[in-house]
Amino acid sequence: MTRTNRIRAAVVSATALVTAATVGVGVSQAGGSRTAHEPSKKQIAKLFDRWNAALQTGDPEKVAGLYAKDAVLLPTVSNKIRTNHAEIVDYFEHFLQNKPVGKKIETIVNVLDTNSAIDTGVYEFTLTDPKSGAKRVVEARYTYEYEKRGGKWLIVNHHSSAMPEG
After folding, report:
1. Of 1, 46, 49, 129, which residue is least crowded by CB atoms under 10 Å?
2. What are the φ/ψ torsions at residue 99 (nearest 5 degrees)?
3. Sign of CA dihedral 57, 58, 61, 63
4. Which DSSP symbol is given to 98?
């Protein structure tokens, strides 16, 4: 190999290494920056636990505080769509009388971006009749749409409907 060919080979090899390193760093940074601030599916799924714990307090304001001011609630045991804080509090004032305890049966989480995600699936609630103490289980489909606002994950849409085949 002549001196010129060796220099060319060295330049080509060096260029290939620099190109590979640049592409590798670019891909790593692009992938890292996209996901570094996105919540994990597990983090989003745990937002239900926060909501369920708020139910256990029996405080409708505490539960409603997990919803954005412009949230929409399509509740399980009411025909009325709730579109503001006062209406959401009103729903939970009645619902919490049944001492609901929720449990997810199936969950599918889609992280849309760093500030929004959807958790959808099936859950069940054990409800206790306030007069008789009798317990019953209601299985329902659910969808929670979350947005991170002011650094806090809030429910912006919540739909829950009893399973039609039951």
Report:
1. 1
2. 45, 60
3. positive
4. G
> Per-10-residue mean pLDDT for the chain, 166 residues long?
48 41 41 66 97 97 98 94 98 96 97 98 96 96 98 98 84
pLDDT computed for residue 1 by the predictor: 54
C-alpha distances out from residue 14 to 3, 5, 11, 67, Å: 16, 14, 5, 56
Q: Mark out the alpha helices in 65-140 (DSSP H runs).
A: 85-95
Note the pLDDT of residue 24: 43
Two tokens, residue 147: 């947005």
What DSSP letter does each residue of 32-49 carry, written as one string?
Answer: HHHHHSSPPHHHHHHHHH
Nearest Cα to 100, choosing from 160, 154, 156, 20? 160
